[in-house]
Amino acid sequence: MAYKRPPDTYDVLPYPNVKEPWLHTAKWRFVEGVFREVCGRYGYKEIRTPILEQTDLFKRTAGETTDVVSKEMFTFEDRGGRSMTMKPEGTAPVVRACIENGIFATHPTPKLYYIGQHFRYERGQKGRYRQHQQLGVEVFGADNPAIDAEVILLAMSFYREVGVKDQVLRINSLGIPESRVKYREALRNFVRPFLSEMSEEGQGRFEANPLRMLDTKSPKELELLSAAPRLIDFLDAESAEHFGALQGYLNSAGVPYEIDHRLVRGFDYYTRTTFEIAGASLGAQNALGGGGRYDGLVEACGGPKIPGIGFGLGMERCLISLEAMGVQLSIQNEETVQVFLITLGDASLVEAPAVKLLSQLREAGISADKSYRSRKFPQQIKEADEAGASYTLILGDSEIERGVVQLRNQKTKEQTEINLSEIVGEIKKISILSKNF
Ligand code: AMP
Questions:
Q1: Which atom from ligand 1 is nearest to the alpha carbon of 312?
Q2: Which residues line ligand 1 (CB under 6 A)?
Q3: Which residues contact 204 (CB under 8 A, 6 or more apart)?
Q4: What tens digit of pLDDT does each residue of 360-418 get?
Q5: How far does residue 311's CA lie from ligand 1's centre (Å)?
């Protein structure tokens, strides 16, 4: 029986049935490379966190009434009887890791980035997968709005440099938990007259977590909520000043943005700044990435009382967006073979020296390969071309007898005989001199 992935899309590839998955991997590597490069330039260092965390970490931080925690987590009991969850988001694991390793005691403002797989039991559709890759940053220990601007500028730089040209930045401020108490009441008062017209889910949110009502995707609810009170009208003085300063910094950096009064984002830990970057070409799942400030999160996880801000962006949506815009990624195919060794004649004579030569070439830093299925010349030449080799080396009985090998330029078909003992040095010379090698 041939195994297949389940009908829902668990696949890590955004396009199921790709014929050459390694080309897709090369795209991932390209995007990751741009992200690493941009993060490095902004002074961020990479952190890798485990895929499994204790379930409680996400319940406590993201919030029990959020979609992710209430219905999308891959949670199971491990053999030790502990409830474990495959990480659905990147921030809480980073916070947990920093607290556990005492990072905040030695580094007052760590600036970190991560790249990794995330898991959510969602209904699969284009741009929404049960396994997806996020690239994100987290900064701790700074509540200066300039750092909010830095994090946003970093995300915008990344998109610009990776080739996404149609990015739209939306920002909002949620204020602090104290100022939200009044807002929550105002929102309930606004919704109460038409509560029965809200969906069952909306009505549940009205009771348990009214801000989540703003997060709805239902066109009817969006219409009902279009004149809802605005969070920014309920901000405490400091949050209002903070938000004003952030806008000033974005203006001075020449970054256009819109204020989106419904932008609460999917997790409960956000305070003050939230932001989202959308791609105009993405369609329904148009959020390329987003994030915000989470000033109470470190403390809620048992760490010191320090603020934080971060964002996460989706690899798959980034690639979909680039494809929709027709952007050709400058992917360097590092796996192209430079030299292909062709063996002819008596295998018992030729194969042992061939294995040795291949290994010598590879040890010398040259990417080299040979055929493992055919001993016919035309087929091996075809394989060499398919592998993208610039040169072939031809080794047959007569070459072995004379201690030589034929060096063939695949493009010009020019052939030269070279001593076996000198061939590795010769190829090294060509590789240094030739740009296209
Ligand atoms: P979030 O953690 O929900 O704020 O998501 C951050 C970003 O990750 C989103 O803007 C998407 O680009 C991406 N993302 C989140 N969930 C998924 C998913 N199920 N499939 C693909 N990308 C996702």
A1: 6
A2: 89, 120, 122, 127-129, 132, 134, 266, 287-290, 312-314, 316-317
A3: 65
A4: 999 999 999 999 988 899 999 999 999 999 999 999 999 999 999 999 999 999 999 99
A5: 10
Q: Is there a domain that residue 366 lies in? A: yes
Same domain, 273 and 143: yes
Q: What is this structure's pTM?
A: 0.89
* Cα 349 to ligand 1 centre (Å): 58
Both 312 and 362 in a single domain? Answer: no
The residue nearest atom 18 of ligand 1, judged by CA position, is 128
DSSP string, 98-131: HHHTTHHHH-SS-EEEEEEEEE-----BTTB-SE
CA atoms within 13 A on the CB side of 432: 7
**Domain count of the fold of the chain:** 2
Per-residue pLDDT band at 357 (split at 50, 70, 90): very high
Residue 265 sits in the same domain as residue 343: no
Q: Where does 163-199 have alpha helices with state H?
A: 177-191
Task: Report phi then psi at 307, rounded to 5.
Answer: -80, 170
Q: How many whole angstroms separate alpha carbon 43 and alpha carbon 112?
A: 9
Q: What is the CA radius of gyration of the chain?
A: 28
How many CB atoms are located within 10 Å of the residue 53 CB?
18
Return the CATH number at 287. 3.30.930.10
Higher-pLDDT residue of 57 and 165 is 57
Q: Does an H or E element contain 134, and which?
A: strand 131-140
The answer to whether 87 and 93 have CB atoms below 8 angstroms apart is yes
Do 48 and 107 lie in one domain? The reply is yes
Cross-strand partners of 418: 405
Q: Is the same domain home to 386 and 353?
A: yes
For the CA of 127, the nearest atom of ligand 1:
21
Pairing mode of beta strands 404-409, 415-419: antiparallel
Range of the domain at 69: 21-176+236-324
Residues 155 and 263 placed together within one structural domain of the fold: yes
Residue 140 shares a structural domain with residue 256: yes
For residue 397, is it within any domain?
yes
Distance 63 CA to ligand 1 centre (A): 17
Structural domain ending residue among the three candidates 324, 352, 384: 324
| Structural domain contains residue 102 | yes
Six-digit token pair at 259?
């204020």
- Minimum CA distance residue for ligand 1 atom 20: 128
Atom 8, ligand 1: residue with shortest CA distance: 314
The CATH number of the domain holding residue 364 is 3.40.50.800
Does 313 share its domain with 355? no
